[in-house]
User: Fold this.
Amino acid sequence: MTTTLLTGIGLLATQDDEFGELTDAALLIDGDRIGWLGPAAGAPAAARAHDLAGRCVLPGFVDSHAHLLFAGDRAAEFAARMSGQPYTAGGIRSTVAATRAAPDALLRANLARLAGELHAAGVTTFECKSGYGLDTATELRSVRLAAEQTPEVTFLGAHVVPADTDRAEYLDLVCGEMLSSCAPHARWVDVFCERGAFDVDESRAVLRAGIAAGLLPRLHANQLTAGGGVQLAVELDAASADHCTHLTAADLDALAGSGTVATLLPLVEFSTRSPYPDARALLDAGATVALATDCNPGSGYSTSMPLAIALAVREMRMTPAEAVRAATVGGAAALRRDDIGRLAVGRRADLVVLDAPSYLHLAYRPGVPLIHQTWLGGVPV
Ligand code: NIG
Ligand code: FE
Assistant:
């Protein structure tokens, strides 16, 4: 097994309670794992050394919410929003038409292109949802193609009711044939619980059917309205309630007292010109917070985790340390993974090297490409 020693690490922000933040550090990569980390003076010998010249090293970002299986784009819809039109769930249907018409090769290439963007943005694990097929054949193609490129695949047949389709019949399909076709290729089940998509009772029925088929629940909750999505996510011990843009005091309490992560998606508020979620209230209440891109062609077409971090700091009053934690440990918690999101001996060597001496620069230098290298399982990509 080859060993590589990363030397000259100006700041190593491990996000691990035992190792904390180290200055003038080194890190040994042994195969796909971290073999050692600590002060540079104590570094062991290695087959190769790689001098990082004072740069900052973080765990790779964990993007726990993304919709990457689609064709086409909705730039015109974005432009209309910037001229005053509101965002609505209905725009999803135009992506559905393009996705159904696309051959596998095109969907696969689009996903690979977006995965490449995510890696260039420092992301080492990403989740990918279906939900732009909304018929059994295209949802099955979607989860299969997603599973080629990530283990974190989510079945989102309940994204919206497709055009010209009876609502009750569609819900029967999602909970029946579509679910049983897709479940073998997915780890998660998700529902867009929102005005214009699915209500709380419908969402509960879909999540319960998914759980019965062996999937783990997560939920799009409280994006456009303070509906009952967050409460439902907590009721079902979902790994994550995502968006959380409109929360009541009871929602805050429920999240804080639960194992459900509040996943915030500030690139969506940016791209839909919406108010940002109250991250400060969530953190102060004791909830676990994650940051993710929600990259999708409708509500926010960005793979930039660094921009999400900068927005979380500037617009949502998270400290830079809290935002980095949410993009690493928080994302791992939202995927119920403990092998990623922090740097410690024995964990996966998934890490990001910043072209900066500290992670403060992610928010201090917004929009600047600061990702020097992304290492996936001990290999630079
Ligand atoms: O997370 N909210 C549901 N799904 C996406 C948007 C999908 C779309 O508009 O195409 C989201 O924002
Ligand atoms: Fe989403």
Q: What stands out?
A: The CA atoms of residues 27 and 37 lie 4 Å apart.
